[in-house]
Design goal:
alpha+beta; Jelly Rolls; Arc Repressor Mutant, subunit A; 2 domains; 4-stranded antiparallel β-sheet; 44% helix
Length: 227
């Protein structure tokens, strides 16, 4: 299960109010419609991005055009920060909903790193978090079976995007079977079968396009499967 992306709060930790205000004034704000690309895999790096409003997906696209979703981003998440070596973007960022993104241009980022010790420390911490996330994610992807990965991913989505209701934690129509299949690296058919299985054993229930999750039962299921 992926760890949360570094946030704007973490990036600006140690900043004074005036320094934070200056940082925001240096960013360029852009709006994107649902399904619009923020940038594409292979594009030259031009800045660090922060989700201000809406949801995004980070995807890797194979040479055959197959899409693999790597992350779902929410407001406050920082992405595209690995740009200092000048390599092309390694993934594509796409708006899942209408979204607003703040972009800190590369030249300004380099100037801040050269002139602000507080920002340099925060940026180094952010990069360290990204490396730690990768180290934690790879073993889980190798070891877990599809039903285990799906249960973990549903809990992760519930934590980030769910709404608590008397029926359970509600996930909206943004969470499709296709999206789930890309997130866990399984076929859409496998995800559909697993969703039916999870419903049969009381881990979730479906109403229209919404999923209502029993988070405690999902957590217990993961624990039992890991024994």
């Amino acid at each position: 299960m992926p760890l949360p992306f570094p946030s704007m709060r973490e990036l600006l930790s140690g900043f004074s109010e005036a320094e934070s205000g200056r940082f925001h004034s240096l960013c360029i704000e852009r709006r994107f419609l649902r399904d619009e690309e923020v940038f594409r895999q292979g594009d030259p790096p031009d800045g660090v991005c922060v989700v201000k409003k809406g949801l995004l997906k980070i995807v890797s696209i194979s040479e055959k055009g197959t899409e693999q979703i790597l992350h779902i981003l929410r407001p406050g998440d920082v992405f595209g920060e690995l740009i200092l070596i000048g390599k092309p973007r390694p993934f594509t960022a796409v708006a899942l909903t209408d979204a607003t993104i703040s972009i800190l241009p590369l030249a300004i980022l380099q100037d801040l790193l050269a002139t602000s010790p507080a920002f340099s420390r925060s940026y180094l911490r952010l990069l360290s978090m990204r490396l730690y996330e990768l180290e934690q994610t790879f073993p889980a992807l190798v070891q877990a079976w599809p039903h285990h990965r799906l249960a973990k991913e549903l809990l992760h989505l519930a934590e980030d995007l769910g709404d608590e209701t008397p029926k359970g934690t509600r996930l909206t129509l943004h969470i499709t079977h296709e999206l789930l299949s890309n997130l866990i690296g399984a076929s859409r058919e496998t995800v559909t079968l697993l969703i039916h299985k999870f419903e049969e054993i009381g881990l979730l229930r479906r109403e229209g396009r919404d999923l209502f999750l029993n988070r405690q039962r999902l957590a217990d299921y993961i624990g039992l499967e890991g024994e």
